[in-house]
Amino acid sequence: MRVMEFSDRASVRSHLLKIEDKKKRNEEEATMLLEVLNSPGPNGSPPIGLQGGLVDEQGFPRGDVDVYKIRTQRNRLACLRTDRKELEKEITELLHVLHGMKDDTPPQGGGEVNGFKEESVQSNVVETAVDMGTQSLVYDLVPLALVNQVFDSSPAQEAGLMENDRILQFGSVKYSAGSTLERPKLADFAAETSAHFGQPIQVVVLRGTNRISLSLTPKQWQGTGALGCHLMPL
């Protein structure tokens, strides 16, 4: 892929924000498709996921699922993954272009560039560079638990955990879409908490359509438990 030529850093930053917006919309659609594919089927049957079979033991299309719809969703998800990789590659190349250019002199009166505050633009660029290394790792993770209560002054609140967050990863506890392994239970969260008492645990949550990485340290506090939050299995 060839990155277009730019005359100044402002134009590079503006284009970066456009590409980042495309990537965000790509991930929102992919998240929606993953949630559909990983939702229980009719009558509470197991989710079809990304790898669930679409034919019965005799080799005929299954009658309990919409085979055409599932294939369409899986194909669309595959296309989104390919597009996302291209967008991430373009972002990386644009960052190299940006860092290789001399800094612009900010316009007077607030340091705004193309309608964006300089600080905000730089923040987005830095977050893009950092997040790209981790987003692909959590891209296919399935929400395992819902945070339905966070207590004041608790370790969970200090870490930034919020009600209605959906937990994708809790330390080593995670589950990829289409995995043939047993889905983790809340008991696995408790075991991870006990094993890392007083030590930070990486927690990745889905807040709306945004993936957010937090550091939660289980510890003794004025309330009960080591986390100070209530989780509900999904």
Layout of strands and helices, then pairs:
Layout: H1 9-37, H2 67-99, E1 112-113, E2 116-117, H3 118-138, E3 145-150, H4 155-159, E4 166-170, E5 173-174, H5 186-195, E6 201-207, E7 210-216, E8 229-233
Antiparallel strand pairs: 1-2, 3-4, 3-8, 4-5, 4-6, 6-7
Helix pairs in contact: 1-2, 1-3, 2-3
Explain what this protein looks like in three dimensions.
The protein is of the alpha+beta class and 234 residues long. It folds into 2 domains: 9-100; 145-233, PDZ domain (Pdz3 Domain). Helix content is 42%, strand content 15%. The protein has 5 helices and 8 strands, in the order ααββαβαββαβββ. It has helices at 9-37, 67-99, 118-138, 155-159, 186-195; strands at residues 112-113, 116-117, 145-150, 166-170, 173-174, 201-207, 210-216, 229-233. Strands 3, 4, 5, 6, 7 and 8 form a 6-stranded antiparallel beta sheet that branches. Strands 1-2 form a two-stranded antiparallel ribbon. Residues 105-138 have low confidence and may be disordered.
Key phrases:
alpha+beta, coiled coil, 8 strands, 5 helices, single chain, two-stranded antiparallel ribbon, Pdz3 Domain, Nas2 N-terminal domain-containing protein, chaperone, 234 residues, PDZ_sf, flat
Largest sheet: 6 strands, antiparallel
Q: What is the number of helices?
A: 5
Elements, N to C (H/E): HHEEHEHEEHEEE
Total domains, how many? 2
The rounded Rg comes to: 22 Å
**Mean pLDDT across all amino acids:** 77
Q: How many strands in all? A: 8
The helix content is 40-55%
Percent of residues in β-strands: 15-25%
N→C terminal distance: 41 Å
How would you describe the shape? flat
Summing up helix and strand content along with how strands pair, one would put the structural category as alpha+beta
Unreliable stretches: 105-138
